[in-house]
């Protein structure tokens, strides 16, 4: 038993799946998802410039 035989065997690479033909519904769904993703990215970028939304919270008085 040489050192190369020990341990877990690597699985053979699976063949690539053939690209399936998408019908109109799937194409529309993918397009809609891409548009929603772009809208979310834009909203994230817009919200990143502002401070925290809940700036209230526990209010501390100036007295000691």
In short:
The protein is mostly helical and 64 residues long. It contains one helix and no strands.
Shape: flat
Topology as a string of helices (H) and strands (E) = H
Helix content: 25-40%
Sheet with the most strands? none
Ends: how far apart?
A: 76 Å
The secondary-structure class comes to mainly alpha
Number of strands: 0
**Beta-strand share of residues:** under 5%
Helix tally equals 1
Q: Spans with pLDDT under 50 lasting ≥5 residues?
A: none
Mean pLDDT: 77
Radius of gyration: 27 Å
Explain how this protein is built:
The protein is mainly alpha-helical and 64 residues long. The protein has 1 helix and no strands. Helix content is 39%, strand content 0%. The mean pLDDT is 77. The protein has one helix spanning 24-48.
Record keyword descriptors for this entry:
about 60 residues, mainly alpha, 1 helix, about 40% helix, about 0% strand, flat
What is the fold's blueprint, element by element?
Layout: H1 24-48
